Inverse folding.
């Protein structure tokens, strides 16, 4: 059964920015997520690029009130199932394949699939996906590219991710086809490793205040 669009839209509308996180040490996940939630960014994407990412998602899901943890870089059935099992409320993929969309159809936990061209967007619209990640956003043409899609492919609304900064986020968020943006600038690997929770909270607060 195709997925219910309102579920993924609720995640995208929770705040103007979804922090994209690479978490090596799960013991840092709870204070990191607490700082993000305090700063006003409840939806957080923990990428499955580290061996212990699933543990981090589980800890956030079980311990951080108000957080909406999601799993990023999900590309196959095993990862999708494990991410849902760990408590992910949403799933993000850098792209989309027919196989991945079939897997998503088996789950209530929604997928935010990636697209970077008009044809990729059209293929996803055909499958009922109107809420998409635009990835890699800056490298694939940035805000001018996305603006060009807003008239011919008006049903598609995006979360641009990849090379986005606070300044660039503002120009994406001014577009009619952008609901939120994603990025690692709020809590990069260095900030997490050095436990810079106040810096993360401060950057989250600035991101949460972006108009859209
Ligand atoms: C990623 O793939 O890591 C995300 O798209 C975040 O990209 P960024 O690090 O350029 O913000």
């Amino acid at each position: 059964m195709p997925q219910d669009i309102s579920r993924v839209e609720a995640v995208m509308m929770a705040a103007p920015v979804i922090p994209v996180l690479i978490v090596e040490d799960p013991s840092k996940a709870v204070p990191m997520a607490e700082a993000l939630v305090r700063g006003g960014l409840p939806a957080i994407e923990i990428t499955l690029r580290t061996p212990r990412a699933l543990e981090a998602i589980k800890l956030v899901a079980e311990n951080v009130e108000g957080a909406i943890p999601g799993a990023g870089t999900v590309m196959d059935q095993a990862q999708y199932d494990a991410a849902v099992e760990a408590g992910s409320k949403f799933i993000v993929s850098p792209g989309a394949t027919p196989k991945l969309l079939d897997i998503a159809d088996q789950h209530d936990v929604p997928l935010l699939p990636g697209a970077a061209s008009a044809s990729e967007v059209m293929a996803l619209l055909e499958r009922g996906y109107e809420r998409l990640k635009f990835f890699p956003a800056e490298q694939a043409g940035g805000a001018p590219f996305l603006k060009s899609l807003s008239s011919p492919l008006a049903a598609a609304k995006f979360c641009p991710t990849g090379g986005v900064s606070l300044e660039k986020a503002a120009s994406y968020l001014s577009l009619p086809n952008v609901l939120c943006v994603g990025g690692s600038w709020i809590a990069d690997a260095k900030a997490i490793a050095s436990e810079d929770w106040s810096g993360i909270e401060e950057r989250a607060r600035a991101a949460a205040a972006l108009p859209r």
Notes: The chain is about 40% helix and 15% strand. The chain has one domain: 5-208. The mean pLDDT is 97.
